[in-house]
Amino acid sequence: MARKLVPEQHEEKRQLILEAAHRCFLRHGLQGASISMICKEAAMSPGHLYHYFPGKEAIIEQMADEYLSALHKHFEGQRETRDVATVLLSEIWSMNSWDDAAHCRILFELLAEAGRNERIRNILARNSDGVRRLLSDTLTAGQARGEVDASLNTEHTAAMLIAIVDAAPMLPLMLPGIDFDESRKLITTMVRRFLEPRQ
Amino acid sequence: MARKLVPEQHEEKRQLILEAAHRCFLRHGLQGASISMICKEAAMSPGHLYHYFPGKEAIIEQMADEYLSALHKHFEGQRETRDVATVLLSEIWSMNSWDDAAHCRILFELLAEAGRNERIRNILARNSDGVRRLLSDTLTAGQARGEVDASLNTEHTAAMLIAIVDAAPMLPLMLPGIDFDESRKLITTMVRRFLEPRQ
Amino acid sequence: MARKLVPEQHEEKRQLILEAAHRCFLRHGLQGASISMICKEAAMSPGHLYHYFPGKEAIIEQMADEYLSALHKHFEGQRETRDVATVLLSEIWSMNSWDDAAHCRILFELLAEAGRNERIRNILARNSDGVRRLLSDTLTAGQARGEVDASLNTEHTAAMLIAIVDAAPMLPLMLPGIDFDESRKLITTMVRRFLEPRQ
Amino acid sequence: MARKLVPEQHEEKRQLILEAAHRCFLRHGLQGASISMICKEAAMSPGHLYHYFPGKEAIIEQMADEYLSALHKHFEGQRETRDVATVLLSEIWSMNSWDDAAHCRILFELLAEAGRNERIRNILARNSDGVRRLLSDTLTAGQARGEVDASLNTEHTAAMLIAIVDAAPMLPLMLPGIDFDESRKLITTMVRRFLEPRQ
DNA sequence: TATGAATGAGGGTTCATTCAT
DNA sequence: GATGAATGAACCCTCATTCAT
Questions:
Q1: D105-114, pLDDT tens digit by residue?
Q2: Which of A140, B25, B52, C145 is the most exposed place for a label (fewest CB within 10 A)?
Q3: Residue B107 shares a structural domain with residue B185
């Protein structure tokens, strides 16, 4: 008689909301996007939205978490690749255009928010942690193979590389006419020269 | 009755408001800081504030303009310095701690806003333009002196260096324990290796 | 398929809901307690609750009815007691502490509500009626036995005694340090002196 | 040039709001009366109302405070009256009808709220304190003159008398047809018999 | 029976802005 | 120049209630 709980549907709805929220945040910012906008975007009444999330903060936080883990997922499964720089910059290489990068602009929202909101800051740190360890290991392996300058502190270098990758979407904002492919190559060149062993 | 010669006072008040706004934006974000907060911070009534600025947008825009030009002012007056990398990273070298960098966090607000607001985007582009030209000239001069790799496109390289400098305040957000001095050195090393002529 | 003989279960569930509602009303007030709170307290879904009651008002009304009749039930079965004052104040004497009295606080909610809501006012009047008649009869019997001042209008006196009993839970709110036993004795003394025949 | 602060006008507006709120609370209860209702009643926009009060709670609290102090103000200035009972029940005697008493019904709202809200409870206690001391002094003076039973604890007796006075508005709710004058006399009689010295 | 998805009006509150003085 | 009174739309969120299953 009683309807069974269908957690998959529940989870689907949550994802639907998160995607709608992501679009709104992209268009209007974390604070500028209102619950009622998200509701319209998700074709859902406000009362119902609160059935799935306890508040706006929770939406932002889960969105941030999933967004960041997706953003950095490119690194995984590429550990066997030979060229270290290619692995490190796989995220950039996986993008096809500035439109893709534009989609990343939500990172700025998060960085701005992280400066004032400890919870967002922790989410950011937690997500960076995993990637940083991955990059660090890759660098260490590269050093062992003689492909990476052995004098570099792999921990700090990894952190900086993440920052650089995350800064890439900045370029079109500061330099409207820039070409996507060329800037990608430029970053790669810089990283490669940075890492290669000094003779 | 007619008072004509007090435009200096007028300008002083505007600056006072802009500084108050800057502090509020730093604490609460561009959207999170309200006019009434800014009024309190500037010890001024809302009606009076609107005597100096036509609205919140105008405050944000002028604040952005002045903030960005101040941020990049370090480059000027250092053109005669010998070491190219030092010139290029003078902004970073002028900071003494992450606290100084924290003050730069407002840049994230602006980058986030620039993604959606054309006027802010233009202000950002206009300000970057000047610095980019400056950096570009420095790079060209460096190439002429044989200190910079001649194969690099100076325009694009300059743009990327700005992005890197602007990404620096990201680091403590992603990697809470990082040391300020070491990360500064790491960035410098990377840039130097990137630019030096290939043999 | 047809089940007919489960009206007891139906009634049980209704009581369960009423008890849960009572607890919520006590904690948050008639207007402050929400249906969803009551649902949680009764471990029941909102859809199900509406299977037993047509709405919040109905819950309040039946709760009020049962609460009031329970509150005044003490009077019954004590008619043969000799001392008139003891009968009249049996409700107060049946309480053991202010905790019990606290449980009576819901009466204030009802009195407040009765001031604006005619249906609650009627429920209150109807319940008081029964008790008032009971008290009135007790007083008349007392007058016949010469234990109660014969000049008192028994109807009005009964009404006032109910008000006094109902006002008892007020005391700890107004006089936080008061002792329960002493205030009980004080009320009894007052009532006894009031009722006793004048010589 | 700058307009002077006119604190009297500010205070006037606050009183205007409090009166509007009082009427709304009387009609719909403390929780049932909404800010927007109060705004309509006070002919004022919601934004403006928050210029005078930081929130609904503050309105309730100040209203409660002023209401209670007004309610008990009758006692003052009657200390020289000869008859103790008359002084003690001056509040009841000052009313002319149940309509006057109806206006007191807001007390039930406050009593109900006091059961859950510590701040309201404190306001209630603080206001009762003053009156209780006044009554207590009156009783002590009456004992000295031999008009009041010397065996009564004046503190507790005073507390109970307040409760009785406050319970008076209950009567028409429980007994719709009751006569105002007669019930007033009845209460007075009871109090007088209670207090008079025992021979 | 029983569930929880779904609604949309309304809750208290804050907002950028304008106005009379 | 300067004040703070005044607005009303919009903010996030909760409500009592209904519906499909």
A1: 899 999 999 9
A2: C145
A3: yes
| C2 within domain boundaries | no
Q: Are D109 and C157 in contact (CB under 8 A)?
A: no
**Protein residue nearest nucleotide F2, by CA to C1':** D2
List per-block mean pLDDT (blocks of 10 residues) for chain D, which spans 199 residues: 68 96 96 97 97 98 94 73 82 85 87 93 90 90 94 92 87 84 91 91
Name the DSSP letter for residue C73. G
- pLDDT tens readout for residues B106-154: 999 999 999 999 999 999 999 988 888 888 999 999 999 999 999 999 9
The residue length of chain B stands at 199
Q: A193 contacts in B (CB within 8 Å)?
A: 193-194
Are the CB atoms for D124 and D68 separated by under 8 Å?
yes
Q: Count CB-CB contacts under 10 A for residue B171.
A: 24
Nucleotide nearest to C6 (CA to C1'): E1
Residue C77 neighbours by CB under 8 Å, 6+ apart: none
CB D98 within 8 A of CB D180: yes
Task: Answer whether C186 sits within 8 Å of D160, measured CB to CB.
Answer: yes
Q: Give the 3-state secondary structure of residue B6.
A: coil
| Structure tokens that stand for D68 in this block | 């209670």
Is the same domain home to B16 and B79? no
Torsion of CA B105, B106, B107, B111, to 10 degrees: 120
A97 and A37 together in one domain: no
* CB < 8 Å to D187, chain C: 160
In a domain, B2, yes or no: no
Is C191 in contact with C164 (CB distance < 8 Å)? Answer: yes
Least confidently predicted of A4-13, C123-132, D187-196:
A4-13
Among A26, A34, A175, the strongest candidate for a mutation testing the B interface, having the largest count of B CBs within 10 A, is A175
Q: Which residue is nearest to nucleotide F19 (CA to C1')?
A: C47
Q: Is residue A1 part of a domain?
A: no
Clarify whether residues B42 and B133 are in a common domain: no
Ramachandran assignment for C152, one of left (phi > 0), alpha (psi -120 to 50 degrees), beta (any other):
beta
| Residue range(s) defining the domain that contains residue C39 | 8-53
Encoded amino acid at A76, one letter:
E
**A76 and A45 co-located in one domain:** no
pLDDT tens digits, D150-182: 999 999 999 989 888 888 888 888 887 888 998
Give the closest residue to B45 by CA, choosing from D165, D1, A39: D1
In A, minimum Cα distance to B153 occurs at A186
Looking at the complex, report in whole angstroms how far the Cα of residue A40 sits from the nearest Cα belonging to chain B: 20
Residues A46 and A65 in one domain: no
In the prediction, which pLDDT does D31 show? 96
Contact residues, A window 28-47, toward B, CB-based 8 Å cutoff: 28-29, 31-32
pTM (two decimals):
0.92
Sequential DSSP letters for A69-112: HHHTGGGTT-TT-S-HHHHHTHHHHH--SHHHHHHTTHHHHHHH
Mean pLDDT of the B48-74 span = 93
Count of structural domains, chain B: 2
Evaluate whether residue D14 is within a structural domain: yes
pLDDT confidence bin for C79, thresholds 50/70/90: low
Please check whether residue D181 touches C, CB under 8 A: no
- The residue of B31, B107, B164, B174 whose CB has the most chain A CBs within 10 angstroms, and thus the best one to mutate to test that interface, is B174
- Positive/negative CA dihedral, B187, B188, B193, B194: positive
D156 touches chain C (CB under 8 A): yes
